[in-house]
Amino acid sequence: MSASPAKSDVNLPDLSAFWMPFTANRQFKSAPRLLVSAKGMYYTSHDGRRILDGTAGLWCVNAGHCRDEIVAAVQAQAAEMDFAPTFQMGHPKAFEAATKIAKHTPGDLKHIFFTNSGSEAVDTALKIALAYHRARGEGQRTRLIGRERGYHGVGFGGISVGGIAPNRKAFSGQLLPSVDHLPHTLNLRETAFSKGQPAWGAHLADELERLVTLHDASTIAAVIVEPVAGSTGVLIPPQGYLQRLREICDRHGILLIFDEVITGWGRLGAPFAANYFGVTPDLLTMAKGTNNAAAPLGAVAASRRVHDTIVDGAPAGIELFHGYTYSAHPVAVAAACATIDLYEREGLFERAAQMAPLFEEAIHKLRGERHVIDVRNLGLVGGVELQSREGAPGARAYEVFVRCYQKGVLTRYTGDILAFSPPLIVDEAQLGEIFSTVAQVLKEVE
Ligand SMILES: Cc1ncc(COP(=O)(O)O)c(C=O)c1O
To answer: Name one Pfam family in it (predicted).
Structure first.
């Protein structure tokens, strides 16, 4: 399908007041790209073009856009009860949504704490880790270990354990103390063009032993990693790496947190990456696909041990002094209930698993195209790394992103890496269109 021609008589709103997040505001406002409606696999742009969504919005619209059942649930909930507090009060949909989520979370991660975003879920998980050790009499375990290139949102906790340099730089004077980082796992010399999990790199998990020796286990509360690092440009964990992290954490009484804000809800063809890899963390964060991004929602799933230690171990009264006005907002959790029902009814995680080999084949066709120095993939997520232009890192991928958009395909870029994460309803023809458009654009850009 080729993109229809742009409408010339477009009325844009005044763009000056909205200070856009993670956006080059001046560049964007000089050549804006607005999306005005969405259905299934497609957006419609402000200039009237159909845009094939290669990124599920922002890694979040896993069931496809504006699904009737989710729209109806949001509308019904907004009309029935707009808001109810969950501090010392409750409403049925909050409990129902937690139960539905807990049906899919792995192991005994069956206690669900609601937040409004992935960033809040991360900061919540870090706080729960500290509270857990304190409740069991090891309050000196306060150190948090993240990983280079990790993205854990934008709260102070998240950017402290995160490892994306520009996200930390301006705030570097006030990051959390007592944080250390594992090395990231990307090494193009060893793993370029790997299909699925690279065979090389499990030994990088042993760096955790080095940090334990350096700091002493008795000071370390938790390790947090994305099972597949998404925002930094899709880094696939080496075979055996996550298993080894789990073993080392167990050996030293350190909690393992999986940040599944991207990998959760079917992205790898299983409910969570933890299910996919067969590694169960102690805490698991989610957001995005939890309710198909129909309203802001995040959550932390905690193991029985973590939950019971904090809740049963506390004196009478509030056990955890933490929460948000909008924790389990009725509209957000109503959307989650409808979304999870839809995932189950349509078997979308199984569908993602079935489509994964086709996705792999389609994305790896880009090997050999100009500028491409790596292609990597797992499930329905993939990254294509381009050679950076001399002295202008990120410029080439940005140009590819803009040109793909002009040709009717939404991609995402970070640095010089293009990222792909289509809704799980994507079909073979649409996969072909996404990657043939990228191939064409790669021939055009310098
Ligand atoms: C792994 C991970 N953690 C946390 C976040 C932050 O989520 P949010 O933007 O909803 O705060 C993201 C967002 O992309 C993410 O990918």
So the answer is: Aminotran_3
**Angstrom distance (rounded) from CA 105 to CA 182:** 26
Q: Which atom of ligand 1 is the closest one to the Cα of 285?
A: 3
The beta strand positions in 232-328, using DSSP E, are 255-259, 283-286, 298-302
The segment(s) of the chain belonging to CATH 3.90.1150.10 are 25-66+348-444
The domain 69-183+217-232+252-346: what is its CATH number? 3.40.640.10
Coil, helix or strand at residue 128: helix
Per-residue confidence band for 198, with pLDDT thresholds at 50, 70 and 90: very high
Statement: residue 3 has pLDDT above 90 = no
Question: Is residue 51 a contact partner of residue 406, using CB atoms and an 8 Å limit?
Answer: no
Q: Which atom of ligand 1 is nearest to the CA of 260?
A: 1
Q: Return the C-alpha torsion angle 436, 438, 440, 446, nearest 10.
A: -160
What residue's CA is closest to ligand 1, atom 12? 153
Mean pLDDT, residues 132-145 taken together: 98
pTM: 0.97
What CA–CA distances, in Å, run from 327 to 86, 205, 312, 435? 7, 34, 22, 39
Residues of the chain with CATH 3.40.640.10: 69-183+217-232+252-346
CA of residue 118 to ligand 1 center, whole Å: 4
- 440 closest CA partner among 411, 404, 416: 404
Q: Is the pLDDT of residue 15 over 90?
A: yes
- Tokens 């069991």 locate to 136
Question: Tell me, which fold does domain 25-66+348-444 have in CATH?
Answer: Aspartate Aminotransferase, domain 1 (3.90.1150)
Task: Express the helix, strand and coil content of the chain in percent, nearest 5 each.
Answer: 40, 15, 40
Exposed, middle or buried: residue 148 (CB in 10 Å: 0-12, 13-18, 19+)? middle
**What percentage of the chain has pLDDT greater than the value 90?**
97
